[in-house]
Amino acid sequence: MIVIEEENDLQIPAVREKFFGRLYEEIFPIVATFVSHRNGTLQDAKDVFHDALIILYEKMVSNKLPNGVSADLYLVGIAKHVWIRKFNRNKLSVSLSDTEAAITLPADFFTDTNDRKILSLIETTGKRCLDMLKSLYYDKLSLADVAKNLGYGSTHSASVQKFKCLEKMRDTVKQKSIDYADFFE
Amino acid sequence: MRTSLNDIKKADDFLTGRLSTGETLLFQAKLWIDPLLHYRVSMLKKVYTLVHLYGRNKMRMELTGLHERIFNDPEKVLWHQQVKSLFPKK
């Protein structure tokens, strides 16, 4: 059993790969069994499992997991919720433990297609800024770590760049949202 | 920092809960009376949403690679067979 407190530095790709690899081998068969018993396919099981791993990662880097809960049990619980949400299944038809019943999925996880289209429009021009902002707001790395990883001379210069990126992205999103609305409406 | 960056910093601090209670109340009052500020803050919230979506897309690509590596690993043939046997061929 993997205890969540033991898992640190998940933002480092090599650490994450090792952690996810272990969960894949140990927990994917459990999720696949759950999905197959409900007439799902291997592809469904893969999609559900990947969504559940992403949600687990987000909860772990945000310190939003209950203390002392094992990652494997929590992952199975998230996968059940994803299955219910993704395939519009009745929550009452799935057996949930008390810990699993208390799990909530991120409100914005199943995003609308407009956001996907706007992201695809800004990805090509703003990749460097997106990568920096992802490190800070998605992976929850500290400004000091981001400064070090991206080669900034100081935390202050990384901080200034962060606000420049936020300003640039905000203005780009504003423009692309207008362009998108003009084009499709 | 130039004024526009200080404005972004203030909005970022507000949205990420880094302002004091007094500063938060003041900022909320400004949002009520300043439609342009309200619009800019809503656009900043959209940036956070898109950054999250970008992060999730990156993570999904990473997981697809991991899935391929595990399912193509000759040392895990028994594991693959066990997983695949869960799904009857249609």
TL;DR?
The complex is a heterodimer of chains A (185) and B (90). Chain A has eight helices and no strands.
Overview of the structural elements:
The complex is a heterodimer of chains A (185) and B (90). Chain A is mainly α and 185 residues long. In chain A, helix 1 (13-36) crosses helix 2 (42-61), helix 6 (127-138) packs across helix 8 (155-184) and helix 7 (143-150) crosses helix 8 (155-184). Chain A has two domains: 7-100; 115-183, Arc Repressor Mutant, subunit A (Orthogonal Bundle). Chain A contains eight helices and no strands. Chain B is 79% helix and 0% strand. Classes of the chains: A mainly alpha (185), B mainly alpha (90).
Number of discrete helical segments of chain A:
8
Assembly type of the shown chains?
heterodimer
Number of helices of chain B: 4
**Order of secondary-structure elements of chain B:** HHHH
Please give the alpha-carbon distance between the first and last residues of chain A. 52 Å
Shape of chain B: rod-shaped
Shape of chain A: globular
Mean pLDDT score of chain B, rounded? 93
SS class of chain A: mainly alpha
Tell me the helix content of chain A: 55-70%
Q: How widely separated are the two ends of chain B?
A: 63 Å
Q: How many beta-strand segments of chain B?
A: 0
The main sheet of chain A comes to: none
Radius of gyration of chain B, taken over Cα atoms and rounded to an integer in Å: 24 Å
Low-confidence stretches of chain A: 1-6
Query: In the residues of chain A, how many domains can be counted?
Result: 2
- What structural class do you assign from the helix and strand content of chain B? mainly alpha
Q: What share of residues of chain B is helical?
A: over 70%
One letter per element, helices H and strands E, the order of chain A comes to HHHHHHHH
**Which percent range describes the beta-strand content of chain B?**
under 5%
Largest sheet of chain B: none
